[in-house]
Amino acid sequence: MKRIFFVLISASLVISSCSKGGGSSAGRPGAKSKGELVPTGSKKSFLAERPYGMVAIPAGSYVMGLADQDFTNTPEKATLKTVTVSSFFMDETETTNAEYRLFINYVRDSIARTLLAEAAGEGGGGTGTGASIGDYAYASKKAGDTKNAYQEFMESQGGRDGYNESKKLDWSVPLKWKTSDYPDAQYAEILESMYLPAAERINNERIIDSRKLKYAYNWEDIDSAVKDKSRGTQYLKKESIAIYPDTTVWIKDFNYAYNEPLYDGYFWHSAYKNYPIVGVTWDQARAFCNYKTKRKSDYNESLKKKKQKAMAFRLPTEAEWEYAARGGRSNAPYPWGGPYLQDDRGCYLANFKPKRGNYIEDEKKGTYTYTAPVKKFPKNGYGLYDMAGNVAEWTESPYNNSTYNFASTLNPYLSSQAYREPRKTVRGGSWKDVGYLLMTGYRDYERKDSARSYIGFRTVQDIPEGAAKFKRKTR
């Protein structure tokens, strides 16, 4: 049993704050509170800030599973049961190529800036415009940089695991990627190391070496921490993920089809910027979620008037995904209700393969040969697009027989197997699937280290239970 010690000093009970940053001193009982416990701060209810491109999914209950026809009769299918899901924000579309390229560019620039900062040393003599390599020195190394007490202390201690204040990059100095803009030979040597070696280039084309684009981050193994009844750095798992999507999936998935144009340009060509990202593994999708969280947290930290720490972005559990896909409808086999795959004008309601060997059928009906740009098909009751078809989507949940049988009816999720189980649940069906596989209750799987031309993802963010509630749409 843990012992709790109370220390009395001058007949007064001293209570230390455990909040991040320590907070302000309690001091003497204020005159306004008259010695009573009156919490300070705003009395307004906390209203969760809706992230850009996301919609609020209200909390609710639904019957989870494939309630309509089941042609497969597999043991892994969803057992019907009523479950409750808390409210959360969800991307209104699948993550696009343009959004994922922001992630790629951030990692590319971070690596380049780190290499330049190491080479710049103490810096000096720079103008702050990138006219010399000295401009790219670490922010703390630059002349005139003032350190606060915390920065001086952390530097004297050699930093802390995973972060060193003395190696903070200066992002205000622009990078120069055009060879004609290189300021000096040393800068050119460092930047050229980011590209494929000349011997590996095709037609002598300068292309960033995607093997060097690795994103490093930590995540906490909560299940092990809870099992040990402890918390600490020993439960932090360090990941270094190669994040460039596998563009060869367009060839590997279809050995007997001419998909070379997609292999050559689907990810990077501007024509596909609003198409869903594919060729990413489950681990790469999780790394993107971490980057998205970091991007928002860094922004909040940069504000003069600090904001509440941003809730983490993550992949949805399959219970959350199915609940959101139903769009507030009861017993809906498809996100639009159903049971038909076309509207009253004969137009298809999702991007899928309508007939054997026929991926288009009729262009007037709005189908596509492969993936489609996001927002080309009607949204569901919650404002979500492409919850059926286009690309299937990774979820956080493992795929096995016990997923439904032993998971709770309150926010179902098997955390103990979430990372260890190599098979992950995939939901929604894709452009290559028949209509049956688009049903909201149908579940499929893929190994987490596999990348496919028909699997993408979207992210979610929790809404605190104490936040102001959103009105639920009823149908």
Automatic annotation (TrEMBL):
<dbReference type="InterPro" id="IPR042095">
    <property type="entry name" value="SUMF_sf"/>
</dbReference>
<protein>
    <submittedName>
        <fullName>Gliding motility lipoprotein GldK</fullName>
    </submittedName>
</protein>
<dbReference type="InterPro" id="IPR019866">
    <property type="entry name" value="Glid_motil-assoc_lipo_GldK"/>
</dbReference>
<feature type="domain" description="Sulfatase-modifying factor enzyme-like">
    <location>
        <begin position="53"/>
        <end position="460"/>
    </location>
</feature>
<dbReference type="InterPro" id="IPR051043">
    <property type="entry name" value="Sulfatase_Mod_Factor_Kinase"/>
</dbReference>
<keyword id="KW-0449">Lipoprotein</keyword>
<dbReference type="Pfam" id="PF03781">
    <property type="entry name" value="FGE-sulfatase"/>
</dbReference>
<feature type="region of interest" description="Disordered">
    <location>
        <begin position="19"/>
        <end position="39"/>
    </location>
</feature>
<dbReference type="InterPro" id="IPR005532">
    <property type="entry name" value="SUMF_dom"/>
</dbReference>
<dbReference type="InterPro" id="IPR016187">
    <property type="entry name" value="CTDL_fold"/>
</dbReference>
